Amino acid sequence: MRPLTRRWPAAAALMVCVGLLVSAASPATDDEPLTLDDFPALTDGVLTNPLFAVRDYSQSPAFFTVRPYDPAPATKQVEQVEQEQDQTSVTLASDILFTVDGSDLSEPAVAAIGALVAQVPAGATVTVDGHTDSVLDDAYNQALSERRAQSVAAAVAAARPDVVLDVHGYGESRLKVPEGGDDLAEDRAQNRRVEVTYTGSAPEATPTPTPTAGAAAAGPYGGAGLVVPVPESLEAEQTVDAPGRPGEKLRIGVESLEVRGGSMRLRIVLERLDGPSDPVTLYELMDQAVLSPGVADRTRLVEYRTLSNTGQRWSTDPVALDLVPGVPVRFEATLPAPLYPTEALAVSVDSRWPTFEDVPVTFS
Q1: Cα gap 147→97, rounded to integer Å
Q2: Which pLDDT score, from 0 to 100, does residue 196 have?
Q3: Residue whose C-alpha is closest to residue 95's, from 345, 266, 332, 348
Q4: Would you say 197 and 87 are in contact if contact means Cβ atoms under 8 Å apart?
Q5: Do the Cβ atoms of 107 and 94 come closer than 8 Å?
Q6: Are 332 and 318 in contact (CB under 8 A)?
Q7: Are 138 and 108 in contact (CB under 8 A)?
């Protein structure tokens, strides 16, 4: 029979190592707190001991290594340009161009669309196709897609009266991606779009500016959602339906939108207004969907989404966040810092609810 051996995990070995060092340290009195100088120097014996040796994790699997902060995947310009042979297709993100359920374009949006079609050959046919997600019914989505396509077509016509327009609305009949993956909110955002297609060269790419707020952030700000007193004042608030609990209402409000270094912290207050007194998770209230707020710059036409790292969002965990009627809770999300100087941004807590427009931005 093989003798039994005990293998110590790395954490236990570290505690033993620290214990040995502390035991060898000079005792400190209450008046003289322990400092680094009180610890003995590391000897070759300690450094070469297999239990305590310094370990190199440079060749370890990814989950053992430090992951760099990269805001690029969470920052989205209004247009995505693709060219195949001589055909150019420009996909415009509806969440940046329009408010929720809206179809009116701002003056900056009209100007941006005009710049995108500046290189269209004279007399060319420009196809404008509007698309939605599948959240509401077919008839509503069809009408919304048509209105949005017409708004974009009007902006194209204003900049290029010499082109021929072919305008369509397809509602939810031509989804770009299926809406049922691990990231439902992102799937729906991709499907809410207006596509502009023409024959000719693609527009010149606009250089991406550097963030205005400084160095990159070290990590997320918030952890668990905590029960908080009702703020004396919110930047904005509204009452909405709870998607996963028919008949129940939620009070949602934007508490603050604060830029710190290379990231932006969004604080949202949520409160169940009715329903049974038993706790219900935010995940269930959202119809088993992860809350992933977004922020849009309506002037510069840039969208900022909740940062994530290997699939884990930098936000409060909606599965562990319980809500009971009458008790507000705070939800925090971390997003990239704005690329451009700005005083106010639009906040979308969920695509099924109205957007909070002109939320003030503070810098610290």
Answers
A1: 13
A2: 94
A3: 348
A4: yes
A5: no
A6: no
A7: no
pLDDT band at 4 (very low <50, low <70, confident <90, very high): very low
Q: In this structure, are residues 128 and 153 in contact, taking their beta carbons and an 8 Å threshold?
A: yes
Computed over its alpha carbons, how large is the radius of gyration of the chain? 27
Residue 11 confidence (pLDDT)? 41
Backbone angles phi, psi at 87, to 5 degrees: -105, 130
Separation of CA 244 from chain center: 22
CA 260 – CA 43 distance, rounded (Å): 42
Band the pLDDT of 100: cuts 50, 70, 90.
confident
Q: What is the pLDDT of residues 125-155, one digit of tens each?
A: 999 999 999 988 999 999 999 999 999 999 9
Q: Which domains does the chain have, with CATH numbers?
A: 10-55 (no CATH), 72-199 (3.30.1330.60), 236-363 (2.60.40)
Pair of tokens at residue 94: 């509806």
The residue with tokens 């088993």 is: 288
Residue with token string 């707190």: 33
The mean per-residue pLDDT over the stretch 212-237 comes to: 44
Residue of higher predicted confidence among 307 and 50: 307
Provide the token pair at 103: 């179809």
Model pLDDT, residue 234: 67
Angle at 145 between CA 132 and CA 91, to 5 degrees: 65
Q: Nearest 5 degrees, angle CA 275-CA 315-CA 246?
A: 20
DSSP assignments along 67-100, one per residue: PPP--GGGEEESEEEEEETTEEEEEEEHHHHS-T
